[in-house]
Q: What sequence folds into this?
């Protein structure tokens, strides 16, 4: 992007770059590089979030009135590019990028005043309670019951694949408040305190050996009706609004940085070098689409699905390239210079198989794109 930057944007990039250089501690940088998942544990992400928050930069996408820095789309892109180039920890998206925008859109002034500052400061750590056993792609079939009792709902059922539920003190959750009419019409969106009696968290270990995921059980869990976001039985609209933020986003800067690491470790093998060059060209195309999406040019409604498919599939292609390098004869001789990124190649490959499943599987995203294009 450097060649396209105006003097003002170059100055902005330099300001961000020097802030990161001066404030990102080496131990956090190293821990981030050695994390095989896109989800960095809170002992890595929260210290960095606090440093950014003190500078007013923890939530680049938020409007100024809620504590955002007031940057335009290109500034946000530059900021993300500089963070990933410096191996900064990834901030947990569930609070900052998922529940925050729906709080801004659907929340009461009281809910906004209470939750948003706690998200920015990292005091609240959120998890997402959408999927259930039997309700993933067909999310509207969810069954976790929320029955009215006085001023509360009483919840019974379970959620599954709940990323970082074991760290979170809050969950945003879709529950069934009515069995009448279409399944989508009987869902409500609740904000739940994870310390509420009756909530039990059971770990699920992934293929890569990580503990990121959980099943969460609810046995007669009382949640005040005041903790509902949006109207009763209108939770599906809230969820759809949120999913547009969960998908989409910005993939290319991190992938460009990863591909550079892979290239650095690559032996003089013409076939591998050609594959890396092809991938670099695809990333240029992805970057161009991301910038169009940020500027709201072109088919805006389709971008969340388009970028989710292209970004996650490019990241898996880079995993395969990194594994190919590990398998090159004679490569072990170079192990002494192993970049951190390559050292976690196999765990990352295994962990990242999930990228084309979570946030709505890529098959479902292709269905959404096809429906929008074909009507
Ligand atoms: C690492 C990871 C983290 C996750 N984190 C969370 C979280 O924090 N919170 C949360 O709520 N959920 C989370 N999920 C759940 C995720 O959203 C679901 O796994 C996803 O929506 C797919 O649902 P499913 O697993 O039930 O698969 P299914 O819906 O059973 O799908 C199985 C397969 O069938 C395909 N398929 C299904 N329907 C169709 C169709 N109509 N057309 C074409 N193909 C179809 C799918 O693409 C998939 O390949 C996470 C999942 C993973 C893997």
A:
């Amino acid at each position: 992007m450097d060649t396209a930057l105006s003097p003002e944007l170059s100055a902005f990039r330099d300001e961000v770059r020097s802030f990161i250089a001066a404030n990102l501690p080496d131990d956090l940088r190293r821990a981030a590089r050695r994390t095989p998942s896109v989800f960095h544990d809170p002992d890595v992400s929260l210290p960095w979030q606090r440093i950014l928050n003190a500078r007013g930069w923890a939530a680049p996408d938020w409007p100024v009135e809620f504590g955002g820095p007031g940057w335009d789309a290109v500034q946000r892109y530059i900021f993300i590019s500089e963070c990933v180039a410096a191996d900064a920890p990834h901030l947990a998206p569930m609070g900052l990028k998922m529940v925050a925008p729906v709080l801004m859109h659907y929340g009461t002034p009281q809910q906004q005043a209470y939750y948003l500052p706690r998200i920015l400061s990292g005091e609240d750590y959120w998890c997402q309670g959408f999927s259930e056993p039997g309700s993933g792609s067909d999310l509207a079939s969810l069954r976790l019951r929320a029955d009215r009792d006085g001023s509360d709902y009483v919840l019974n059922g379970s959620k599954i694949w709940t990323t970082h539920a074991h760290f979170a003190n809050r969950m945003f959750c879709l529950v069934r408040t009515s069995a009448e009419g279409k399944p989508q019409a009987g869902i409500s969106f609740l904000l739940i305190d994870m310390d509420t009696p009756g909530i039990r968290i059971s770990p699920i270990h992934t293929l890569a050996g990580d503990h990121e995921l959980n099943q969460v059980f609810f046995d007669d869990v009382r949640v005040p009706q005041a903790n509902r976001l949006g109207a009763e039985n209108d939770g599906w609209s809230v969820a759809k609004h949120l999913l547009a933020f969960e998908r989409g986003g910005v993939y290319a800067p991190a992938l460009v940085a990863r591909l550079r690491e892979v290239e650095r470790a690559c032996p003089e093998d013409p076939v591998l070098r050609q594959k890396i060059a092809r991938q670099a060209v695809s990333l240029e195309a992805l970057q161009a689409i991301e910038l169009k999406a940020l500027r709201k040019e072109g088919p805006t409604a389709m971008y969340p699905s388009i970028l989710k498919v292209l970004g996650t599939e490019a990241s898996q292609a880079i995993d395969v390239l990194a594994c190919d390098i590990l398998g090159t004869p004679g490569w072990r001789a170079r192990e002494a210079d192993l970049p951190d990124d390559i050292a976690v190649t196999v765990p990352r490959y295994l962990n990242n198989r999930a990228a084309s499943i979570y946030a709505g599987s890529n098959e479902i995203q292709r269905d959404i794109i096809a429906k929008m294009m074909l009507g």
